[in-house]
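Handoff note, outgoing to incoming analyst
You'll be picking up this chain. Sequence as last confirmed:
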Amino acid sequence: MSIRVRQIAGMCVLTTLLSACGTAADLPRWQWGAPSPEAPQASPTVPIVEDHEVPKSGSGIFAVADGTGEVIGRGGEPITFRVEVETGIDWGDVEPVTPDDFADTIDTVFKDPRSWAGSTQHPVTVPDQGVTNASWRFRRVDGEVYKVRVRLATPNTVDQQCAAAGLDTEGKYSCRYNDTIMVNLGRWLQGLPESGSLDEYRASVINHEMGHFLGFVHQKCSGSGNLAPVMMQQSMGLDGCLPNAWPFTEEGEFVTGPRVPGEY
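Most recent structure output, in case you need it:
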């Protein structure tokens, strides 16, 4: 897939926090309807990026990943999403993340049956969030018509754009507002110990932020020893739950919990 670089001055916002998955080369290629293999382990080929190595700022202009992807999931009109990466980044000794790389990782996350696309086989009903028999499927596009865009940006750019919506991302969190998801490059490169592997962190942030776009608010742990909902702010604590990057289990069960009071 080639990269068509387009100059897009950007804005973005709403809140996120934790999530996980890896580079497309490291992630398993799941097949719909096939048995799920064991959960992926941390890849030994992913280098550790130190705090001082994380690029802090870029141009605020974004390059769009070129090409249209396959429809992921079954039935219904797909949610079209566009993938963008900030330009003007001094990567130093860090392996650059291209729009192609970022797009491949997101595509791979959505192709996993445990992602939101799993709802096309297991429709979702969550009464306290007004969700009844819902399902979603996805398709990546590169044009001006899309339903949501997913941007990878430096911490300073994320802070600036999220602050415009009154959100404090503190140089480390991601955010989402309206039709835009902002993913913090620092966390994308480093992950979080609470998430397990870097792959799992990346899947988590994509699934968490897309969950906000789909209308889900933050959720709490449903009980000690249970999997944490992907909509839980797991980086702030697990409250007895087990870390989890996915909306669904391998058996197709939707992982949910009580909504956080006051969130709508």
